[in-house]
Design goal:
Keywords: DNA-binding, Transcription, Transcription regulation. GO terms for molecular function: ATP hydrolysis activity; DNA binding. One of its GO terms (biological process) is regulation of DNA-templated transcription. Residues 827-892 form the HTH luxR-type domain. The protein is mainly alpha-helical and 898 residues long. 65% of the residues lie in helices and 4% in strands. Strand 6 and strand 7 (331-333) form a beta hairpin. Helix 24 runs antiparallel to helix 25 (477-484). The radius of gyration is 32 Å and the shape is flat. The two termini are 54 Å apart.
Length: 898
Amino acid sequence: MATFPPPDASGAPRDLLLKVTPPRVPRHLVSRARLLSSADALRDHAVCVVQAPSGFGKTSLLAQWRLEYLGLGVPVGWVSAQSQDDPGRLVQSLALALRVAMGRPAFGRSLFQDDRPGTLGSVTALLAELAQAALNVVLVIDEADRLPPASREALAYLLRNAPPNVRTLIATRPDGRLDIEDLVAYGQCVEIGPALLKFSLDETLQLVQARFGARVDRNTAARLHELTEGWPLGLQLATTIIARGADAHAAHTVLGDMTAAAGELQGELVRLLLVNLDPDDRDFLARIVVLDLLHPELCRAVSGVDDAAARLARLSNDTPVFAAAEGGEWLRMHALARDVLRQRFAALDAAEQVAAHARAAQWLAAHELLDEAAHHALSAGQHQTAYELAERSLYESLMRRGRQATVLEWMAQMPADELDRRPRLLLAAAWTLASSERHEEAGRFVARILAQPGVSDALRCECALILGGAAVFADDPDRFVELHAPWTEAVPLTDPLLLQSHANRMAYRALLEGEPALARLRQQQALRGHPGHGVDYIRRWSELVIGLSYAWEGQVLLAEQLLRPAVAGAEAEMGRRHRFSCNLAALLASVAWERDLPGDAATLLADRLDVLEHSGLPESLLQAYRTAARIAAAEGAEHRALELLDALDAAGAARRLPRLRIASLAEQVRLHAQRHRAQTCRELCERIDAQLADPTLPQGPLWRRSVEALRDVARAHAAIAARDWPDALAKLARADEQARQRKQGGLHIELLGLRALALERCGQPAQALLREAMDLARAYGLQRVFSDAHPELGAWVGTLAAEGAQAEIAVAPLAPAVLPAPASATPASPGAVLTPKEGEVLVLLARNLSNKEIGRAMQVGETTVKWHVKNLFAKLDAGTRTQVVQRARILGLLAAGH
């Protein structure tokens, strides 16, 4: 029979009191929307199991949930499990926790008087008391992995038989299985693993902002996220290190120098995790850390440890330094821990290091993992073997997975004569250089390829594709079209990768020639005509081209629908700072800005501008800097906006992209015109004219047309700044004609609005023109086009929109406003009185959400929410938010459940 410490006055053993005391909630704990207890993925499950290694914030999440339930008035019992908790002690701990939570001193008294509290009968008695309590309760069990097997069985019995008024939240390590897979299968239990517990970039930005405010900017916070990979423990350590700074400047300096921050983080990691490991485990980790990806058999081959599989499984459960990679049995070590352990590997005997690399190369090559095998062979001094493996793998690795960085590393390490002996390596190098700021070097590699004997038409066509890519990155559309023209009809290609690349070029050519719809058609035909495995990366470029075509037309709703999943997929597959991910994100950021989602736009651009400067498409680089500058201007930081536009000019100069320099000046004209700085605008326009007069600039018609459009729009803004409205009308008409010819729908709508403003200032009828522009903007999803064009235009549009809302009220049926609808009546359709967006805002108001929370829920800006709320006040003749909800219910515009 189990013995227990003396009871207190309530009959509970005294040593249980600390077990049922919840931990203190961290002061800077950030609630993550997707992990709220009320989130759609969690709220309908009776049991939630948080299962992850230490360091993933399991206890913090339980503490957050506890506060949420307490805020709803639901009692929450907390139990911290211990290894000595046999079934009897566990049952008594649960009873005491519930007694304290519910404030019922007599709850569970019989359980403390039971001579055999460890039987299933005592668990049943506890469940019976809970059912009779007629009160919704939440039971939290932290560190359930510490429970002995018999207690886990008792807990599983409790979970299977819990009454409907009980919800159970459990935290456990991966090895703490509770054998409740049947509850998961039947939808009664949801499991939350390490992948969900990691912080997303948005959540990291929220955490850093809550902790440090404006002292740390988005770029620096994004670098912190990259450093820690969203690992909760890593973020906690990093913010602690930063907070040690004596003042704001010190904090920013520590975080700004990411090398120093990484060093401190690594030191903390060693102190907290690795020092406590068994020496054999540390030695094992130090030997396998040379591997980027870990497999049990690979680790056994490299370390020589027979029980490598069991040791790896145990360490992945006990420490938070491992993460799943590519499914199956593969794991990856966290970068912070890997860097620390590689210092230990470097301290091994040189011969031992060479042997480890050689064993890794042999195993990897045998399993057709040629990229990794080549690196290890080179480190083992097996140079010819390494070059042969690289030749077999690099071209496919580049074309199928976009691994440009790997190609550049090999180019730096491989002698030039080796490259000349290996044509596929030359091709890989040429493709890589063509799609970067080093595009001019690609031409020299193509010349070396074509100088070899026996060059086929297929190879010549591929070389044309490479040079065409270089022309795109050189921002020379006329050269691109010239290179593509000979291969438009007869395409001597059979490789699906190259056929897809050719289709992408066909679509891009149509876009450059002002045919965005044709560009999409070309891509759709290619997707139907070139199916095949392994072309996913090349096909991703088609998503970029289609997204560009929608943005070209101003169809930002369609662009957003395409680009959001495309960006998420690229980041998951290739990483957030991969060049392709950054190009996609730059385009999506510009779309998000037009959709009035400045927070999304800023997050998409965070810590990416430096990548785009070196390997971004000219259009991506332009969109990224232009969007960042507009965000800064909207935040009231005009100096920062001008700095960003100067940086765009500098990037254009460094990469010899004159269109970007002209675009920078044109955007500065727009910014100054909004404040009617006529002289500054004239000077900037003179600089544009001086640059266009340079005879060394490209003279092709496509390039000239694009920069002349920028010049014409800038001149129109300069006339607006000078309030020379007749001149502005003439210049706007000229720019609008070009926009319509090139089918640039967003620019056309903007110029329509500005023309209406100029007409109104000239005393001519203009409302019809402006309303047409407003209707087009609404259809396309352009929510910032008029306020970005000029603040006076934005204010006028707001006034007309308000008048339209009043007109809706005038024609709405008002008779039902006097009497409430019968209980059995069907609620009236809000469409008769309210717009769909206003109806959505009304539902969220009924949930007592703030404007900011409504904006997040609807993915719109807070200003937009305020506008809808103002319209609701007017339409429902209400003076407070409560009155709005009450009158909406009376009118039948809001269901009783809301």
